[in-house]
Amino acid sequence: MTSTHSRYHEVYARWKSDPEGFWADAAREIDWVKPADKVFDPKAGPHGQWFIGALCNTCYNAVDRHVPTRGAQAAIIYDSPVTGTKRTISYAELQDEVATLAAVLQDMGVQRGDRVVLYMPMIPEATFGMLACARIGAIHSVVFGGFAPKELATRIDDARPKAILSASCGIEGSRVVAYKPLLDEAISLSRAKPDSCLIFQRPQLESSLVEGRDRDWKEEVAKARAAARKAGCVPVAATDPLYVLYTSGTTGRPKGVVRDNGGHMVALKWTMGNFFGVDPGEVFWAASDVGWVVGHSYIVYGPLLHGCTAILYEGKPVGTPDAGAYWRVIAEHGVVTLFTAPTAFRAIKKEDPNANLLKGYDLSCFRALFLAGERADPDTVQWAERILKVPVIDHWWQTETGWPVAGNALGLGALPVKYGSPTVAMPGYVLEVLDEGGKPVAPNTMGSIVIRLPLPPGCLPTLWHADERFKEAYLDPYPGYYNTSDAGYLDEDGYIWVMGRTDDIINVAGHRLSTGGMEEVLASHPAVAECAVIGVKDALKGEVPCGFVVLKSGVTQSSEEVESELVALVREKIGPVAAFKLAITVGRLPKTRSGKILRGTMKKIADGDVWSMPATIDDPVILEEIGEVLKGRGLAG
Ligand code: COA
Ligand code: AMP
């Protein structure tokens, strides 16, 4: 199965025959302060590093270098239906905003290598903050606004930031979420206190500032501007971290994914033209959040490195005000490419199954829809194709990789689509599927999906201050490979089929969450003896968490009361993003004879899938009990 029009096979073969030459060519698209002495050093870091010896600045490449040629072009269009605000920021204005904010950060004592945590809603200042850090060589760590203070505190303790950037509030649909009290609580919970915080006061909710610690964003920027203070771009090593982005691990302790400067720029710039098929000057929209990797790579860095106009959308696919919101944004701003999670399209399809709201919008500019973040179910892909009449491209990647591992590279000419598969490995990646013993399996056989080392530029060099954890999690399971923790198979045409995770991660509305982390919260409730959290199928969010709890003997509270306390506890400790709404009390949990909880079988029962009695089960009756309880809750098929 090959397409005569696609250059994919030729480009992939070119990469495979000379990976370093391929990436050295791609690196010519970047302005370097000093070019690399060595394209790749397999001995640097835990598994090699790219562009050794090079000096560069990511903010320079994303902003300053475009100013002479596209200074008046929109760099960012902020479109916020939740506040009724729109703002277009040209490349020249972006340079001014970022350089001024970077000077403020320097006044706050932030220097090259210091960490700066951002806990921000989807406002332009969030992108200014990220770029300002990049400008002065500071390392940003953006924490998604839907996480609770305890989660934020964990990240603060790991990153030990010099400063924190935040805002008074976020806006979720019609709900104003006060961010500042959450930040204050997180700082009081954390051991690593920042020296200072810069707070952007939004008109929807002003918050009080802590004397001696907090500064008013607008006032500080105004002062710096009045004094004409701007920070220049500080050259950093290509291998220096640009950011740390925390992502769910198998326990409650998140993993600090490190992204370097040089390899990241080279890889993202390559993807914009070759993968997404977008030209400089065109309008690119990733409907995600700056708190996720999609937001880092494709709201901020990718489009700006490529000289595109990036859309920053503060709203939802539905309800702000309706399921036509995406069509309005595309038509109004001339978006050529939209990237979002399948769940957003499921939400639109649910509200407006016949896409009536599409009528009246001129989408002639629109060329392609890209979906990632969770498995793209064929129904949703085909529905989107039908209503939009453009290619709908499923692609698969992870926070760790920073850019697509597999997909259908539109810029190289698309290959034939197989619904349910994100197509083929991108240049940079050799995918294999291994059995439990680490042996390659035959085509169409399920196993663990691994990437042959070395990883290409842009992928994580390590975890923040945790080389050993990095090796244990990703390199040790299958020597010579990076373990993706995804399960699936390769078919006879080399198409990859990603079917689910091999660890305790679940994907809720495209958000990556740890069931282990939720179990830690449930277990902390005084009435709970033991618990298990699984992800169960959900028509909108793909999966939602479901917690089974066994109460301690002698507990006098009713199970209903404990269950609602558990729901509230997960929201309080992890945050609303966990979408934990289902706690179910059971008499006992099904286990193997060695005491391992049979989460996989419970999931199959809850999803109404075919399941077989595990040979190692301790007491088969328990699974029947679980099935009955689930049926009572409207689950189990
Ligand atoms: N700050 C504070 N709270 C937040 C938040 C933020 N930045 N983001 C989400 N939340 C809250 C939501 O308001 C919701 O709260 P609720 O339980 O009180 O309703 C909760 O966290 C769960 O959020 P979510 O799972 O996103 O559900 P939703 O009902 O708000 O929206 C979708 C569902 C499908 C519309 C939404 O998830 C979506 O647009 N997803 C696609 C785009 C995307 O985000 N992709 C990410 C990876 S590419
Ligand atoms: P995140 O790190 O939040 O981007 O989540 C990465 C995980 O989401 C992957 O390891 C997969 O489990 C899942 N995922 C992302 N994209 C896809 C896709 N296109 N198909 C199937 N699963 C996906």
Automatic annotation (TrEMBL):
Protein name: Propionyl-CoA synthetase
MF (Gene Ontology): propionate-CoA ligase activity
Segments forming domain Acetyl-coenzyme A synthetase N-terminal: 8-62
GO CC terms in record: intracellular organelle lumen
Family membership noted in the UniProt record: Belongs to the ATP-dependent AMP-binding enzyme family.
Superkingdom of source: Bacteria
AMP-binding enzyme C-terminal domain location: 518-596
